[in-house]
Write a structure and sequence with these properties.
Layout: E1 2-5, E2 8-9, E3 12-13, E4 29-31, H1 46-49, E5 52-55, H2 61-85
Length: about 90
């Protein structure tokens, strides 16, 4: 699974307010538990308490295809850029 975390810069959290019309779809996030689950985590506060999440690409077929395609495209572009620098 892919890992996602809060975006930060200079020690502060980066965030943007977007309009409802800009949301393309929901996604399934699973907290990175580590060795144990924190008993204080609740469904309405976990997004603010957990530092990183796993993005589940297997929930919908469309997500699986899109995420695997995007990763392959990113890797190909990175390799192309590294080859151009060499």
């Amino acid at each position: 699974m892919h890992n996602v975390s809060l975006s930060s810069q200079g020690g502060g959290q980066q965030a943007s307010i977007i309009s409802f019309s800009e949301i393309e779809c929901t996604c399934h996030l699973s907290p990175h538990f580590g060795h144990a689950v924190n008993p204080t985590w609740e469904s309405d506060t976990v997004l603010n308490l957990v530092a990183s999440f796993h993005l589940n690409p297997y929930l919908r077929h469309h997500d699986f295809f899109l995420l695997h395609y995007q990763v392959a495209l990113f890797e190909a572009k990175r390799k192309e850029h590294q080859d151009a620098l060499a």
